[in-house]
Each structure stands twice: as structure tokens, then as C-alpha cells.
Amino acid sequence: MPEETVAQFHIRSVQVLSEDETVDDELVPDLSDDELLTVYEQMKRSRRLDERAIALQRRGELGTYAPAIGQEAAQVGTAFALGEDDWLVPSFREQPALLVHGTAPDAVLQYAKGMEEGAEIPDGEGALPPAIPVGSQPLHAAGIGWGEALQDRENVAITYFGDGATSEGDVYEAMNFAGVYDAQTVFVCQNNRYAISTGIEKQTNTETFAQKAIAAGIDCVQVDGNDVLGVYRVAREAVEKARSGEPVLIEALTYRRSMHTTSDDPSAYRESEEESEWEARDPILRFQRYLEDRGILDEETKGAIAERIEEELASAIDEANERREELDPADMFRHVYQDLPPELERQLAAFEAEKGGEGE
Amino acid sequence: MSERLRMVEAVRDTLGAELARDDDVVVYGEDVGEAGGVFRATQGLIDDYPDRVFDTPVAEAGIVGAGVGLAATGMRPVAEIQFQSFLYQGFHQLAQHVARMRSRTRGTITCPMTIRTPYGGGIHALELHSESFEAGFAHIPGLKVVFPSSPAETKGLLTSSIRSPDPVIFMEPTRLYRSFREEVPDDHEIPLGEARVVEPGEDITVVAWGSMLRETLDAVDDIDASVEVIDPRTLYPLDTETIVDSVKKTGRCAIVHEAPKTAGMAGEIIARLNEEAFLYLEAPIERVTGYDVPMPMFAREDDYLPDADRIEAGIRDVLEFG
Predict the structure, then answer these.
(1) What is the per-residue burial (b if ≥16 Cβ within 10 Å, else e) of A318-345?
(2) Among residues B128, B156, B185, which one ends one of the domains?
(3) What's the rounded Cα separation, in Å, for the pair B79 and B90?
(4) Residues of A in contact with B59 (CB under 8 A)
(5) B255 and B172, same structural domain?
């Protein structure tokens, strides 16, 4: 046996609805018209939330905000494949997925107003708060997927991160842990081509991000992340696999159409021609044309959806403003430990005395 | 019921008891299963609990980070980090997530995780196997930092740590693992945040924890004065009251730790005494500590570590002042 090939790998890539509106009938997922409209509405909801949030940030009403514009298909398509009791483990650009899984838009706004209230996880909701340190949260999803398996439950955890995050060791550790323990975890790498300003060609020498899973011994698939039907199709498969203890990495090829955050100016590192090219490939437009061509979406329905979204956002903004008004600064002491340690009790008393003194 | 155990046996005994008591407890870490841990602190547990004791990949961030997820699903992760300085490879998970999950979600998601880790010098281990980074851990709000100093203390404190609703760093002094036996009661909880007056005295208060408590007790044997020895047992939350009350009585204080001097926990204790017992002090407070050098390799570790002679000299300096 002087030399032989001991293992071989390949990367599968899926597209159901192409840019020129060709549909692969064999691969098209089985979704009812109502479900298709829900998917569309969720994408629009997130888009409008991001647009409103950017405007609010510019007016000084929100802090730094990371829009997901352009990535709605990658996120809505995956999150729509989850069950109610499944877990969502987000990074900081996951508005589309969060809204699908049940997070209220006012929570997103509260978080962007710098309030921990926005990271509260309501009872019964399977989610972790946004993770700011890049690439740190997939390990939590591996732990959740492992914990659910240990407790003989069927819930899966889905976690989102970007192309840049795959350069963090934690992402490999997470996939490796998941593989070793048959964790019920789906990893979603949104390859949006940028880590702030750094393009994917500077991020890694690998041909795909999907193949990062191969070293960890877990399944992977690449999908056109701007094709919501394709994304949903691979996500359904991945979620079912994960439910039976086979973790999967999905690489969704997409594009961050907007800035990294509201503090960023992409014109410093990319050409407007490139942005225009991707504007034409926008995931919402592609899906909208598909629905219109099939007579599922008409002007009246579009109008009704837009109206619902505007109403919801208006009341979400009011709600977030009200919670901000009610904010109790002393709360920062109250959730550090289950019971306030004596030293913190002293600091809280001093804090309150100082604040009380200001009012006099 | 009680048994005479060494500290490492007390760790194992406690882990076994908690695995038996609570189905949510999971014990995991590098080599903790088949091999029973490099110090044998988990020996045999995998035989009794094959579904809740796990050998992990060699990945400290993974061990700490996975605990966040396990805890979110309702489990009680009890992780071993093989040596304390390897926890630096999981430090970001500890500081960014474990410690602040409760506060950043306002109590809606918590992380009741215990990270056990052998620390400290004195066993001629390899480089980076002997650190004492307790001040670093105590500086991260949201963590509890616990130090056993004997087999019975190990049982009581580890039991409380595993049952704690908050994350705990449990620092096990390697040099005490096999150094002596002690009666260890069966069902034993010591509340976290309560210091122990190990020896009562009137002339000076000496504060020491973990491995340094034994050295301090040796030093005190040779001193012809009434020395009150206090083991804080947890450095966060710190039982300030017991230390302050003692110093108000004795008027003098020395603090011992093997970690480097600068920004060490002795400085924090002095600051609290400054706030609450300043006018009772009859002498400057002495720190007997390691030096501000990277923990040396073992050919020099005895020169670095405070021993009974250095501690005795430090106590005498305070007693003789004024």
C-alpha cells in the first residue's frame, strides 16, 4: 500500500429559484400559498425594521445598529424551518431570523437603545440574546444541541454567524464538539462576502465556507442564500438531520447590501457598481417576482402586508420609547447574581443615595 | 456518616454525590472519563454515570462555551479545566458569556455552571501548570470564586458551588490534593460568601486561602502571639464583615496569597479594611505574596512561593510595628 486515497469529499450546492426566475420543480419545497406569503411578509418585516432603525439611528434615537439588508432570504428561509420549541442562537445581525422565531420588533429596538431589556428572553422562547463577540455563539448552540440530546428531547439549536467568524477558533471547536456528541445543532454561515471591510478572499484560502465542516466531520451544504426557496429546502433537511443527532453546516451565499453597522461607511472599501449588481439580485425582489408570476401575490395583498408592517413598527417604536422612559438605572445591580452579594448591596445603597441626592 | 478522605477524594466523593442527587448534573472535561482525570479527581464516575460524564475534545473555549448551552437547556454543567492556566484559552467565553448571561438577559437566561480547576504551585509541575489567577476571576462581575483549603471544606464548598444558581470558578490547590486526610461529612454544604475563623486570636488577623492556609497555620505555630487566622473561602463574594470585625478586634493584619502582589486580592482586602476599619489599625497591613514575575518553572518555584518562614516574618513585622 504505497499510496492510496483514504477519504474524499465533495461540496453540494443548491439553488431552487434562480436569478432569471427559473425554478427547479424537483427541488421546490412543499409550501402552501399562505406559507409562501408568510415567508414573503417576514422578509419585508425585517427589511422595514432595518430601514426604520437606520433612520432612527441617524436621528440619534438608537445606538449602533447592524442591518441585515440583503440577507433576509438566508435567515427567513432557515428560521422558517424551525419548530416553536427549537432554539435560535443569533449573532448581532439576525433580525430576520429573530422576527420569524417570535422575537418582537420592540425587543430589537430596545437592545439598539442600549437596554438589556431588549435581550430578555420571554418565558417559553427558545433563544439566546445577540452575541457581540464574533464567532463565540456557535459553541452555545453546540451545547444546547448536546443538552437537548442528553435529555432525550428533539429540539434543535440553529446558530447564525458570518464568513469572518469562521476564522475564529471557537467556530471550529463548536462544529467539532457537535460532531463528537451528535449534537442537535444546525450551523448557518451567512457568507455575505464582508467582515466589516475585509473581503472573503482575505478571510480564508478555502474555496467554500461549507467545507469548514469537513475537518470537523459534520455534514455541510452550500446554498444560494438569496433564493429563499433553496434556503428553506436545505434548512428543512438540515433541521431534520440535526433532530436525529447529525449536525449540519449550511453556507448561504449572500451579500451584505448595507453597512456593517451604522458606524461603517462601505464606500471606503467597495465599489458602488458592486453594490448595484447585488441590488439587482435582492432576495426579496426575486421572491416577489416569483410570487407575482404565479398569481400568489397581487397589489392588494402587497398593500395589506405593507400596512400591517408599518402599524406594527409604529407601535414597536412607541413601546421601545416607553420602556426607555421607564428604565430604572439601579436594575444594573439586580441581575448580576441571583441574590445581591453584600458588597453589591453596599454599592447599590451608595448609588441610590447619590441618585437620591441629585433629586434634592 | 463521615469518612477520612484526601482532598482529591473529597472532590470525587462530592461529584459522585451530586451526580446521584441531581439528574441534571453533567461532569465533563479533558480526560475526566476513562482516565478519571489527570489528578484522578473524577476516577470511576464514568462507570456509574456513563451518560453524564464525558471526555471532551482538547478545547477549553469549547468546554466553557458548551456549558453556556448546556445550562440554557436546564442542565448543571460541572466542567474540569485540566490546569488553571489552560482556562485562559476559554477566558473569553467566561468573561463574555458565562459571567454576564444572567445580567444581560435580566435573569431570563442563567448559567449555573461550575468550573473546577487545579491551581497553584508546589508540585513541581510543568511550566504554566501552577498559576493562581484568582484576582482576574474575581474582577469579572457575575462569577463566584471559591477556594477549598481542606478535604471537608472541599466537600462543603463544592456541593454549594454545584448547587449555586450562579457560575462558580472552583480553585483546587494541587499541592493539597493528597497532602492530608480529614473527616469529611456525607451531606455537607458551606454557604458561599462566608469566611471561616480557622483559629481565633487577639493580637493579629491573618487572612489566607487555599494552599496558603496550610503554610500560614505552620507559620503561626512558631509565633508567640494570639493570631486569628481567617480563611475567606470565597474571594467573590468576599465576607468583608468577618475580616473587618476581626481587624477591629486585633488592630493588625497580614494577608497571604501565592498570586503576584500587584493587583492581587490582598490589595482589595486592604482597600476594604481601609474603608471600614481604618481607625482601628495599629500598623500598616502586610502582604505576603508571590512576586510580580511570571510563575517560574519548578526549579525556582520554592523561591517564589510564600512559605512558613516568609509568612512568619511578615506576621512578626506587623506585630512588632510601633
Answers:
(1) ebbbebeeeeeeeeebebbbeebbebbe
(2) B185
(3) 12
(4) 173, 176-177
(5) no
Catalytic residue among B129, B139, B188, B257: B129
Q: Is B139 a catalytic residue?
A: no
> Are A140 and B72 in contact (CB < 8 Å)?
yes
Closest-CA residue of B relative to A147 is B70
Residue for grid cell 428604565: A327
The CATH number assigned to the domain holding B56 equals 3.40.50.970
ipTM: 0.96
Find out whether the peptide bond into B167 is cis, omega within 30 degrees of 0. Answer: no
Nine-digit cell string for B131: 498559576
* Share in percent of chain B as helix, strand, coil (round to 5): 40, 20, 40
CATH code, A13-327: 3.40.50.970
What is the C-alpha to C-alpha distance for residues B164 and A337, in angstroms, rounded to an integer?
10
Q: Are residues B150 and B245 in the same domain?
A: no
DSSP 8-state assignment for residue B121: S
**Measured between CA atoms, how close is A75 to chain B, in angstroms?**
21
- DSSP per-residue codes, B65-114: HHHHHHHHTT-EEEEE-SSGGGGGGGHHHIIIIITTHHHHTTTSS----E
- Non-local CB neighbours of B195 within 8 Å, separated by 6+ positions: B230, B231, B232, B233, B239, B242, B243
Whether B70 and A119 lie within 8 Å, measured CB to CB: no
Which residue segment(s) compose the domain that B275 sits in?
196-320
Helices (H), chain A: 33-58, 72-79, 95-101, 105-112, 138-150, 169-180, 200-203, 212-216, 228-243, 272-280, 283-293, 299-326, 342-359
| B83, B291, B294, B306 from B261: Cα distances, Å | 21, 6, 11, 11
Chain B residue numbers touching A173 (CB-CB < 8 A): 57, 59, 61-62, 65
CA distance A107 to A88: 15
Beta-strand pair B227-231/B2-6: unpaired
pLDDT digits (tens, 9 = 90+) for B2-45: 889 999 999 999 999 999 999 999 999 999 999 999 999 999 99
Tally of domains in chain B: 2
Closest CA to B15 of B234, B195, B231, B172: B172
Q: What is the pLDDT of residues A276-316, one digit of tens each?
A: 999 999 999 999 999 999 999 999 999 999 999 999 999 99
